[in-house]
Amino acid sequence: MNFFSHVGRYFLMLKSMFSKPENHKMYWKEFMHQCVEIGIGALPIVIIISLFLGAVTTVQTAYQLVSPLVPASTIATIVRDSVILELSPTVVNIVLAGVIGSKIASELGNMQISEQIDAQEIMGINTKSYLILPKIGAALVVIPCLIVLSAVLAIWGGRFAGIMTGIISEEVFDIGLRNAFKVYNIFFALVKSYTFAFIVSSVPAYYGYHVKGGALEIGRTSTTAVVVSCILILLADYVLAALML
């Protein structure tokens, strides 16, 4: 019953964000602030993870392809498809769930504990709309951009690692990148990015908004929000792959 209670409150929270239309100008500043917080704050870790993901994928793929019958360009093809279809959208979003999700949960939890949300409610502000909607909107705009950047950097990192270690030449890697390329893979990666971005922003916002207690509960809530977000990302990853591939 506790599970269904959380699900019901979660969807009621989403409904409440649109139930009381207000002056949209007051949301623009908060939306831009969240875009900067999410985008700039997560950019360094996305760059580092992406470069090493591509490099490790290239080295491990070359290690597994030991048959002389397999052309070396296949390494680049596998790296490209692995990065676009799975590594950048899923792995990076799981990391962002810890970076962004914990921040959103702790921020809203602190406002709830310090009664700032209650004060805004007394002033007639729809706090679910003002505090949560800009975060979700910013995540839906910024996170897919980070995933695109991650895919590009991961492929470049794999190319650089392959050349530096002598696994594959620059020309052969470029041939493999262009071999049997499917534009649909990019579309699928973007669908996953938007789905995961919604999960990463809305689930921690729900837990942070409904936290009760003190500082200890804020920490526990942030941890729970990250864990639940990661589980939902993996579940959504499987469902999308089963439906769209």
What's the gist of this structure?
The chain has 245 residues and is an all-alpha fold. It is built from 8 helices and no strands. The chain has helices at 2-16, 25-64, 73-113, 116-122, 127-164, 170-178, 183-209, 215-244.
Strand-helix topology:
Layout: H1 2-16, H2 25-64, H3 73-113, H4 116-122, H5 127-164, H6 170-178, H7 183-209, H8 215-244
Describe the fold and architecture.
- By secondary structure, the protein is mostly helical.
- The chain has one domain (about 35-245).
- Helix content is about 85%, strand content about 0%.
- The protein has helices at about 1-15, 25-65, 75-115, 115-120, 125-165, 170-180, 185-210, 215-245.
- α5 (about 125-165) crosses α7 (about 185-210).
- The protein is elongated.
- The chain starts with a helix and ends with a helix.
- The model has no long low-confidence stretch (mean pLDDT about 90).
**What helical percentage do the residues reach?**
over 70%
- What's the total helix number? 8
Profile the largest sheet: none
Separation of the first and last Cα atoms: 34 Å
Strand pairing plus helix content: what structural class? Answer: mainly alpha
Counted up, domains total 1
Segments where pLDDT lies below 50 for 5+ residues? Answer: none
> Any idea what the radius of gyration is?
21 Å
Report strand %: under 5%
**Shape by Cα distribution:** elongated
Order of helices and strands: HHHHHHHH
Oligomer description: single chain
Task: Count all strands and give the number.
Answer: 0
Mean pLDDT metric:
88
